[in-house]
């Protein structure tokens, strides 16, 4: 009779608590800055009043850990929401003083080659989440391409719709596709 095939691998998982894993990593010095952030246990079941700062012009290489280490220097960071596609983040502090210190000391600092813009977030419309202020600020600077060319029909478009610019580039756009008023005039 044939014995078990050689070369077969068995993966064994050790069961360790998250606390034990963190302690092991701590002993290697791989994590844990001198952070002032609360642990999940100290946050409790209620959400305290938060004081957010908007961090703009993030480099694509910026990580949550780097942001956390930097912003916890000015106070207790409750949470961070990163939107790298928008090149921004929202850092929530638990006190207004910490928030103000971050704006005062971190604004203009260079992180990962990018000069950070740290300020109070834009006021988001009622019913939107606090993270919308990053998207709102970035996209509101840009005008809607469709509004300028074919007329945007999205009711929830996040880009600017300047009334005077509606269809202003329609001829430029459609003539490039062969549909414009000058299409067929080639001699």
UniProtKB/TrEMBL annotation:
Read off the CDD domains from this record. Answer: RRM_SF
- Enumerate the UniProt keywords alphabetically: Metal-binding, RNA-binding, Zinc, Zinc-finger
Chain ranges of the RRM domain = 51-123
Where do the C3H1-type domain residues begin and end? 138-164
Its signal peptide is none
Q: Does Zinc show up as a keyword for this record?
A: yes
Which GO molecular function terms does the record list?
RNA binding; zinc ion binding
Q: List all Polar residues biased stretches.
A: 11-20, 30-42
Q: Name one Pfam family in it.
A: RRM_1
Which residue intervals make up region (Disordered)? 1-48
- Per UniProt, the C3H1-type Zn-finger stretches lie at 138-164
Coiled coil ranges (UniProt) are: none
Task: Return the SMART domains for the record.
Answer: RRM
In terms of InterPro entries, this protein maps to: Nucleotide-bd_a/b_plait_sf, RBD_domain_sf, RRM_dom, Znf_CCCH
Q: Does the keyword Disulfide bond apply?
A: no
Write down the PANTHER family for this protein, in alphabetical order: TETRATRICOPEPTIDE REPEAT PROTEIN 31
Q: What protein name is recorded for this chain?
A: RNA binding motif protein 46
Gene name of this polypeptide: Nfu_g_1_021950
């Amino acid at each position: 009779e044939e014995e078990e095939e050689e070369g077969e691998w068995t993966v064994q998982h050790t069961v360790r608590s998250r606390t034990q894993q963190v302690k092991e990593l701590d002993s290697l010095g791989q994590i844990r800055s001198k952070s002032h952030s609360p642990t999940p246990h100290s946050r409790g079941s209620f959400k305290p009043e938060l004081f957010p700062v908007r961090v703009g012009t993030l480099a694509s290489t910026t990580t949550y850990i780097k942001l956390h280490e930097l912003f916890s220097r000015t106070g207790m960071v409750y949470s961070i929401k990163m939107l790298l596609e928008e090149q921004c983040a929202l850092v929530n502090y638990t006190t207004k003083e910490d928030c103000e210190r971050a704006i005062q000391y971190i604004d203009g600092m260079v992180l990962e080659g990018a000069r950070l813009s740290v300020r109070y977030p834009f006021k988001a419309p009622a019913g939107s989440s606090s993270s919308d202020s990053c998207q709102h600020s970035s996209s509101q600077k840009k005008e809607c391409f469709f509004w300028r060319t074919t007329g945007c029909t999205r009711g929830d478009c996040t880009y600017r719709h300047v009334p005077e610019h509606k269809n202003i580039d329609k001829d430029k756009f459609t003539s490039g596709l062969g549909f414009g008023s000058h299409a067929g005039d080639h001699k």
